[in-house]
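**User:** My hope is that you can spare some time for a protein that puzzles me. As I understand it, each token names a local backbone shape. I would be glad if you read both lines and explained how they fit together. The protein I mean follows directly.
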Amino acid sequence: MRAIVQRVAEAWVEVEGKRVAQIGQGILVLLGVGREDTENDARYLAQKVAHLRLFEDAEGKLNRSVLEVGGSALVVSNFTLYGDCRKGRRPSFTDSAPPEIAEHLYYRFCEFLASEGVPVHMGVFQAHMHVGLINDGPVTLLLDSRKSF
């Protein structure tokens, strides 16, 4: 499971011109589910995201998590995080999980993140979304659950 985590002043998702989710200070998580991922990957990544120190303390060091600053998470499914661009010019998505598995693990990730105490807002799975954000920093990290084991 892969995640792009961005610290934001605010972020939102629109589907068909309608805003379906919005947060203020917090994190935007673009989440990709791989073919080999399991609930263990979702749990690990949710715990990691909840406790990542992405926010500055009084000395300006990244020492505070989204939980500590009272922020929220906006989680958006993004199968393209498993795009393989090594051959040719068109990405291959064979490493992405099929939709029925990806949807289940996307929701499980959100449940695990919420169980850590982070208020979670979500995009719409498999919808064409417009995602807007005001990146704060910028602070942007790439996480991969398979690089943890």
